[in-house]
Amino acid sequence: MGLEAEPLTAPHPYWPRDLKIRRYVPNDRPTWHSLSFLFSVSAALLALTWLAAGWRGWTGAPMGPGRRLALCWFAICGFIHGVIEGWFSLYHMDIPGDQSFLSQLWKEYAKGDSRYVIEDNFTVCMETITAWAWGPLSLWTVLAFLQRQPHRYVLQLVVSLGQLYGDVLYFYTEYREGFAHSEMWHPLYFWFYFVFMNALWIIIPSILLLDAWGHLSAAQRALDSVKAKKH
């Protein structure tokens, strides 16, 4: 008796509807499991970083609420980039048929962008850079501000610029494909997963980029003023 061939495709919830996904296995966890994990860990990191940034033993003086929120952002980015996107970077070929928790998280998110279950070249490259560059650098940025390291605003500028650049390309490449990888106008999958969750990495890095620009420019003006007085 010959061995039965492994089916190449299976019914799936992704767009376009005729998308061929090898070895796809549906999630066996409900959507709220994935979302509650993501937001619970993010909330815990936010709370811990907020407390750390307000502790005089770390900073010498408490930070203002705006700076503390910025550090919370970088701490959450370190987790999302390093852990969640790092998983995608390492296991993107296995995710469609894998039932581990983070693979199911990606299969849920892929309902808003199916590029994550088809090994899309741009998505794999972009997420790999994000995971292994912006993930560690985000955590370094948190530490740099807590310890008042002199390069802290340089780190903020570099990470924010990298995040902004990657997210603009992420949206633009999908725009050029006619938003073919999501169910257009769906309130959860398109507007929340694809638009809202990714728009955060345009709005917040833009604000932090301008903030770093202002601090670095002020430092350079002060240095130029000192040099001018010496001559």
Q: Layout of helices and strands, plus pairs?
A:
Elements: H1 31-53, H2 56-59, H3 65-91, H4 101-109, H5 121-146, H6 152-176, H7 187-230
Helix content: 55-70%
The biggest beta sheet is recorded as: none
Separate helix tally:
7
Shape: elongated
User: Gap between N and C termini, in Å?
Assistant: 92 Å
Strand content: under 5%
Number of strands: 0
Radius of gyration: 21 Å
Low-confidence stretches: 1-5
Topology as a string of helices (H) and strands (E):
HHHHHHH
Q: What is the residue-mean pLDDT, rounded to a whole number?
A: 90
Structural class by helix and strand composition: mainly alpha
What's the gist of this structure?
The protein has 231 residues and is mostly helical. The chain has helices at 31-53, 56-59, 65-91, 101-109, 121-146, 152-176, 187-230. 68% of the residues lie in helices and 0% in strands.
Description:
By secondary structure, the chain is an all-alpha fold. 68% of the residues lie in helices and 0% in strands. It has helices spanning 31-53, 56-59, 65-91, 101-109, 121-146, 152-176, 187-230. The relative contact order is 0.11. Mean pLDDT is 90; it is low at 1-5.
What characteristics describe this protein?
single chain; about 230 residues; mainly alpha; disordered N terminus
